[in-house]
Write a structure and sequence with these properties.
Number of strands: 15
């Protein structure tokens, strides 16, 4: 039995914000989150990217609200049985099976890993993150978010044939099923969601940096569809959050 740990951090911890691109075509029209429009500078013979950047016209802005240290782990246990038959003086066959328990990734902080629940999503109550749930707010959710499979069954079969019966030339062959655990990267984002991480982007086809501070956010705004569509800071619509499928046992 082994406990395998992965103490990871998110690959893009831009808690101070990051301008991912700032070059826009000459004279491009930018539509900002509040509906206002602005144009990039017109220069000849080519666009002046540096001047546009200086007045705040960029392509996209990326921001992560906080940095967190994830500490994920899983339990690994396996045992096997094998038997060998010498069917003739020259042919030997072996059959076996391995029982493998590859536990689901879990959160060492016992806060859990976020999962998506259609039942919660369908509930009309106000939610900052509609449809997402985890152990820290609902103890009926397992720490791993989604259940794991108790055991995997991996057969083994092999054979050896002594060509001359004197052990000098033996042909051997075998077949077996072997498994490996999925990567912690598949769960890190969902674990970060349960710890309150939002990864937000603004723009994509252009935005003026002055517009980033002109949209206010409240829980009521984010849960009201009429308001949330124009709100660039609502985590439920404009930020990226991650959750596992609760029914997925793979």
């Amino acid at each position: 039995m082994q406990r395998r740990t992965s103490n990871v951090t998110l690959a893009t911890p831009e808690t101070n914000g990051q301008i991912t691109q700032y070059y826009l075509p000459n004279g491009s029209k930018i539509t900002n989150p509040d509906g206002s429009q602005s144009n990039t500078l017109t220069a000849s013979p080519a666009a002046n990217y540096l001047a546009d950047f200086a007045i705040g016209n960029i392509t996209q802005f990326f921001h992560q609200n906080l940095q967190t240290n994830l500490n994920l782990f899983y339990w690994s246990t396996d045992f096997f049985g094998v038997d060998t038959w010498k069917t003739t003086g020259r042919l030997t066959l072996s059959f076996g099976i391995c029982f493998e328990h590859l536990g689901a990734w879990q959160d060492s902080h016992n806060n859990g890993i976020a999962i998506f629940s259609p039942q919660i999503y369908a509930n009309p109550v106000s939610q900052l993150l509609p449809g997402l749930d985890w152990r820290g707010i609902d103890h009926s959710v397992p720490n791993s978010g989604a259940p794991g499979q108790e055991f995997f069954y991996s057969p083994r079969v092999s054979g050896a044939y002594d060509l001359y019966g004197n052990g000098r030339a033996v042909f051997r062959g075998g077949f077996g099923i072997y498994r490996s655990h999925d990567s912690d990267n598949d769960y890190a984002e969902a674990a970060a969601t349960a710890q309150g991480v939002f990864i937000s982007t603004a723009g994509g086809s252009g935005i003026n940096l002055t517009m980033l501070t002109k949209v206010t956010t409240s829980l009521a705004d984010c849960t009201n569809p009429a308001l949330a569509n124009a709100n660039s800071e609502c985590p439920s619509l404009n930020a990226t959050v991650y959750g596992l499928d609760r029914k997925d046992s793979e």
